[in-house]
Structure formats: C-alpha cells, structure tokens
C-alpha cells in the first residue's frame, strides 16, 4: 500500500517568513520561477544574477492524512527516491533523516512517528556551498575541478563541487550554466506493509545463447518475522517456484530458470530488442503477500580486448556478434532535472534511433538517469555505456566520502542491472588521462601542482574509488557486467602505457585536436583509435532557438548575451576561425548561425566516416554530444528545445547500416569509394558514379557490381583525381555516388574536390512541391542549379526525413515530415505547415556567388 506525498508542499528561505507553493518533484530554482520571484534563468545573462540562491538554506513542508487502514500495517516507511542534496528531514517535529547524497534513495521506518489523521513533514535543505566550503578549508589545498565555474558563483577559485555527491554539471561545465540546485528531485511517498515485501528482483543471466537462456532469479525479500511461503516466478508462459523459510529481516532467494530458444535482445540494426516480463510473487496459504515485476532482455555481452598486430581491440560483442557502436554522448536534458518530461526523454531516444544510432554514453558529469531513459533504450535497441558520476576532477578519500560512494554505487548498479541496454559500466570521465599518474610529461598539468606526498595520496584516493569500490560494486551487484575504470584509457597496466592519447592503439580515445587545438578537419582522418568515445565540434542553435534567450540587439558574435551562452571560453571565436578557413563569409549574423551548423555537420561527417571506414580496427564512434541542458552554442546535434541541427541529419545519413563514404587523399591525388556494412549478412549491389556540373550536366558516368561480406568495410572503387576530373574545374563539379540494392537506392553521397570556401555557388531557385495524396506530409524538393546544404524549416515542431542536404539539378528529393508527438510514438506523419527553404548560397555575401 502506498501513499504518494506529491501535493500541498510549500517552501521558503530559512531566514524568511513567507511560505510559497512548491511543486514536488522540483527544486528551489523552478519553484522561485513559478512564483515570479526570479526571472527566467536561461534568458540573456540572468544566470549571473541568480547565484545567491545556492548560498541560502531552504525548507519545504507539507501536511498529509494517514488513514486508519494505513496505520493498521506494521511497517510505515517514508521513502525519498532522491533528495538534492544535504537535507534534514523531520516528521511531526522529530528528526528522522540526514541525507547527504543526491544519487541515493532514502527509506526510513516512521511507524512510531506517525499518527492517525493529520501529519507533517518538514525538510531543511542546507546550502551545498556553505556545507562544503569548510571541507575545502580543512583539506588545506584545492582539488582539481576544471569545469567548476566557481568564479560565476562568486567563490573566486574556491571549487567545492568535488565534495558533494551531486550532479557535477550543476556547478557549471563548458556547455552548461551554473545552477547549484536544492530540492526534492524525485518522488516521495509512504510505503506500508506487514508480513513481507519483495524489495528487488534481479534476473541474473548466467548463460544466454540462441538455443537456451539459463538464468537465476535473485529475489530480495524483507519480512517482519519468520515466514514460510512459496516464491513463484512467471515469464513467457512458464512458471518456476520454490518453497521458502525466511527469518526476520532481509533475505535473498535464488531460483534457477531456463527458457529454450529465447527471443534475444538485439541493438538497433542487428535485430529486434525483444523483452521479457518476469513477475515474482511471494505466496502464503494460497494468497499473494507481495509481488514485483521486472522487464529485461536476454542477451550476452562481452567487452572484447584482444591483442592484435596494431595493439589491442576494444569493442562490444552482443550475442556473439561484434558490434560497431554508433552514437553520441548523452548529458542531462535540463539544468533543472524535474523539468524533463517523459515526452522529452522519448523524443531524445527516438531521435537517436531515427538517426541510426545503436549506443548512447551516459556521461559521468550528470546523473544516473531516470528509469524511463533506460526503459526507452531497452525498447528502441540502444546500447548504453554507463559512466558512474565522476568527471574531470580529483575527489576526496576520507572514510565518509568513500562510504557514501560505495552505497551510491551499489544502489545504482542494483537499480539498473536488469536493463539489457546497459552493456558497459565506466568509472569516470577523463580523470585518468588528466592526472596521468605514471607519466610525468602527460596529463593536464594537475599533478605538477602538488608535492610528491600529496600526489601519492590523491592517486591512492583515486584508486580506492575507481579500481576498488566501483568494480567491486559492479562485480557483486551485477555479476558478469563489464567495467572500464576511466574514459579514455589504454589498459589497466600501472605504467605510462596506461594513459590514452590521440595516437594510442588500444582502449578508447577522446580526440579533441580538432576544436580545442584548432587542428584541421583532415586530422579526423589521421587520428583514428580503436574506439572513439569522444570528439566534437560546436555550432549555434537555429535562430528561432537563439531568440528564446536573446533580443535582436544581442544578435552579434561578441555580444554580452552570446558570450554568456557560450561556455567554452573562446568558442565563438573558434567557430568563426574555422569558418574563415573552410567557408564563404556569411552575409549577416543570422546567416552565421545557419552556417555554423553546416560547418559542424561537415566536421562530424568527416570524423564519423573516417571511423567507419577503418572498421574493424576502429569499432566505435560516439560524438560529443547528443543534447543540451539549456539553449546554448555547443557541440550538441539536437538543441535544448529538441530541434535537430544539421549534425543530427548528417549523423542519420552517416550512421546508415549499409553506407558509402568517399575519401580523397590530397597528397596522393586519389579518390576512393568505401562501402561499409554493419549487418550480419553479405551485401551485393550496384555502385553508380556520376561526375556532374553544377548545372546538372553529366560529365562522366560509371556503374559496377560491388559486394561486401557481413560486417565488412572496404574500398569498392578507386581512381586518380586528375583522371576523374579530366580537366574540369574542381570548384564547379560534384561526384555523386549511389549504392543500389535490389533495385532501390540504399545510400548516396556527394563529394567535392575543394572546401566549401572554394565552391563556385550560384543562387538557386528551389521549389518545394507537395506530393498529391500525402495529406500535406510529403514533398518533392528540386533546384535549377546545384544547391549546397538545403535547409527546410517547418512551422510545426518536428523533423524531416532528410534535411541540410545537397540538390543537384535533375535529381529531385522526396522528403516527408513528422511532428513531435507526446504518446508512445515520438514522431507521427503530419503537415509541417509553412515550409521555408534556404541554402548556403542564400547565407553568403553576394560577392562570393558565381555569375550564372
């Protein structure tokens, strides 16, 4: 029996008198906003004016009725699924809990504190800043935490984020604002029971093959007194049972199970993400005392690291099949977590699946995500690389901190272990490579700030968390699950060969030479590792999104507002610097916004195709990043409002399970066409190549049969650039390649022999014509001359089947539109309303255009 405690909450600052209505789950910032006490935190530079909130203590309270029926139960437990972060809880004036970890849940028996009728709960949230400043002073030296924006928070160099077991990005990041929240951020309730209650059901998959799945149901039961009964587990029309004799307290019951010829769980692209529902019942005297259900998929997973001639492999093997991981890094969808609705989660996961992804990495500076996130990944067939919540910092090693981490890890592994989507647990983001303990010359310069004694202490503390506590939690709570201590990392050797760099040939790599080091796009073709778990390039959101936080007067690159919504220091200037190198000059700032997306898409296309061409040496490509937590210039492919940038459409094309990639090696004067397959069957088709003028005239043509084996990538055509061009101007021709499979075009790519800056673009006349009988959902788009990066914008919120594409005269494109939907289907065919069309030629200065 449950009593939800989500209504009638009020809140106030502890040093004030006025109580205001509050929403639970929620946080102080959103409650202040709803009560018109603060301005929109995301608008203009309001972030800087709201840093006072995290310096104060806040209190929340509610009253609720407890019925006689509820009071008749022998156990009445107050349950908080999440308190953010330092919270003292009082029930009817008596202290019952002191919480100190945002990532944990809390359960307290309050049977003796409650009374029939009206009851009262009060929660005091202590300022995480005031709570942790004394810890920094006591430690006597600062711990590295590069992304903690303490200056924005008015704390100068005093970085305290590392002391709190709280979402690190709340303290700021190089894509997110600093809003250090407090509040009841997940559900709270009273749970009542008497005889026994099933606390947890774990389906431990001991051996899973196509012929049989051998499992063990591990059921945790708590009972008041000695209990005799029967545990019954049912799934897929089968039933397993075991008589039990339980003693008062917590008990674990194990029950062997077997399903013959199971329907396996597969990631998107390799098969169906089949799921099974397991229901556990505890019965006594022919009645059900307690029951619980879990849903999981049956599959085997292995992180394969095997020595080869180049180094050591690094890839996920699913049901015995090597998987090339395609996807992105996921961050929290909002600075204020309780604002993320189920529809927003589904939109993100459906967008990933629609973009032909098969993996998301839950990055370690956010949160262990809500259950719905993993449930959707299970349903859509998206594998999850799951970080523990540690990123880009060194952490304390005192007993209280380590014990809190241990409990946090055990609880979250236990909560998430049934999700078939989770294929890898990772200790942290970038800490090993930042500290680089075994290589004096490597790292981010952190360790050089400390004496040898402190260095050794900090490394011992690091190893205690990431090489002891976390792997032990995974091993004990999710036996058989894979663990990787840090990303990136080469190996577990205790020497300089452990630490990853852009040229390592084992482990995973974060390559940031392009962007942070201002290296050319072509370096994506040079620095290809065994698994590319991070790389990225920034752009702005579209003008419609920018105008949600900026006025017309703010629409310039170095305005105060644009700089406030660019958290990566010189990020805006970096975008412009690359644009000066690769693209024509935009004619105004609005055009600059569009062209920043076109540039980002081109950079990421270069990277993704380089990684996929190098399969099986490289077996994963996860770009940074999938989403945003506020409206901002960032590396995201989908902006804060869920609008797809050009990158998202390029990802969809570049991640196709069977695709083409065109590579030009300037130094050798060679152009190659690669055919890449991620499917588990051989592919045979026809490759068609055309060299076309920008007016659509065919200058050269060729077709030839091609084939690849299952899961193979290879060159299917190669020639000299000079032979292909045959004297034609490389600035005014396009190489169009198509792959035809069983009479249909499975993929097509356009290749240019010069950068965008040197293309001789003309102003196109682009028409968008509705297809009769499509109810306004489908259109034919065509152009009279070559049009680069054609962008369709819709009146309604949604996505096109393709966008930011190139148009060649005589090659019309058929495009459909789907609107966002709040139901179980994220996108449904619909009319986009008014459609506007732009191309690159519309965004550049007129003097850059070629004459007709």
Q: Mind explaining what this structure looks like?
A:
The chain is an alpha+beta fold. Helices cover 19% and strands 33% of the residues. The strands form 13 sheets. Strands 3-2-4-10-7-8 form a six-stranded antiparallel β-sheet. Strands 29-28-27-26-25-32 form a six-stranded parallel β-sheet. Strands 40, 41, 43, 45 and 46 form a five-stranded antiparallel β-sheet that branches. A hairpin with a 2-residue loop joins strand 11 and strand 12 (176-178). It is globular, with a radius of gyration of 28 Å. The model has no long low-confidence stretch (mean pLDDT 96).
User: Into which percentage range does the β-strand content fall?
Assistant: 25-35%
User: How far apart lie the N and C ends?
Assistant: 76 Å
**Separate helix tally:** 16
Share in helix: 10-25%
Report the radius of gyration as a whole number of Å: 28 Å
The whole-number mean of residue pLDDT values reads 96
Q: Residue ranges: pLDDT <50 for 5 or more in a row?
A: none
- Tell me the structural class: alpha+beta
Principal-axis shape: globular
Q: Strand arrangement, largest sheet?
A: 3-2-4-10-7-8
Biggest sheet architecture: 6 strands, antiparallel
Quantity of strands, as a count: 47
